[in-house]
Amino acid sequence: MADSSAAAAAHHAPSGEVTKRDLLQLIAVAGAAIGAGAIAWPLIDSMNPSKDVLALSSVEVDLTPVTEGQGITIVWQGKPIFVRHRTAAEIKEAQDVKLSDLIEPQADSARVKAGHDQWIVLIGICTHLGCVPLGNKPSDPRGEWGGWFCPCHGSQYDTSGRVRHGPAPANLALPPYAFESDTKIKVG
């Protein structure tokens, strides 16, 4: 029995002394922690959005070259965005529509930013089957209401992007955007 107590005493050093065994345990635990971190970091980092996704999270648009009556198409998050500089006649026509005549009633003022009603910014995807309507180029057909026309099934939208005819069940969607100045918007 004396031999076993002597062996047990040899494994533990007197209080305050560090043994070779304590050093090896410390190295093993530190190595395991570093290894776990080395494995976890790439896994967690892979869950962050990629650089190309971050680049598309917002798009700045200079409105200076867009003349009255003209529209442009930009791409935001892989979607076409229609930006149109509406004429005074287009604005008046959009404001004078009786809401009861609309498939999805929505006032023109709810579809534009206050103080910037000459600009309409829409997601250019037809709400029927996801086609891209025509109407941003001067040579494109714009339908009876002068907005956008989807040739696939004949849906027509007015100058406020509201569905007026055809199988589309809803108005063209509005992307999140803000005016950074009178000549610059940020989509997203």
Structure description:
There is one protein chain. The protein has 188 residues and is an alpha+beta fold. The chain has 2 domains: 2-45; 53-187, Rieske [2Fe-2S] iron-sulphur domain (Rieske Iron-sulfur Protein), CATH 2.102.10.10. It is 26% helix and 23% strand. It is built from 4 helices and 9 strands, in the order H-H-H-E-E-E-H-E-E-E-E-E-E. It has helices spanning 2-11, 20-45, 51-55, 88-95, and strands at residues 59-62, 71-76, 79-85, 119-123, 146-150, 155-158, 163-165, 177-181, 184-187. A 3-stranded antiparallel β-sheet has the order 1-9-8, with no helix packed on it. It has a 3-stranded antiparallel β-sheet with strand order 2-3-4, with no helix packed on it. Strand 2 (71-76) and strand 3 (79-85) form a beta hairpin. The protein is elongated. The mean pLDDT is 86.
Topology readout:
Layout lengths: L1 H10 L8 H26 L5 H5 L3 E4 L8 E6 L2 E7 L2 H8 L23 E5 L22 E5 L4 E4 L4 E3 L11 E5 L2 E4 L1
Antiparallel strand pairs: 1-9, 2-3, 3-4, 5-6, 6-7, 8-9
Number of helices: 4
Q: What is the domain total for the residues?
A: 2
Order of neighbouring strands in the sheet with most strands:
1-9-8
Determine the mean pLDDT.
Answer: 86
Order of helical and strand elements: HHHEEEHEEEEEE
Supply the helix-strand structural class. alpha+beta
Task: Kindly estimate the percentage of residues that lie in beta strands according to DSSP.
Answer: 15-25%
CATH architecture of the largest domain: 3-layer Sandwich
Largest sheet: 3 strands, antiparallel
What fold name stands as the CATH topology of the largest domain? Rieske Iron-sulfur Protein
Radius of gyration computed on alpha carbons:
32 Å
Which stretches are low in confidence, meaning pLDDT under 50 for 5 or more residues running? none
- Quaternary state of this entry equals single chain
Instruction: Summarize the amount of helix as a percent range.
Output: 25-40%
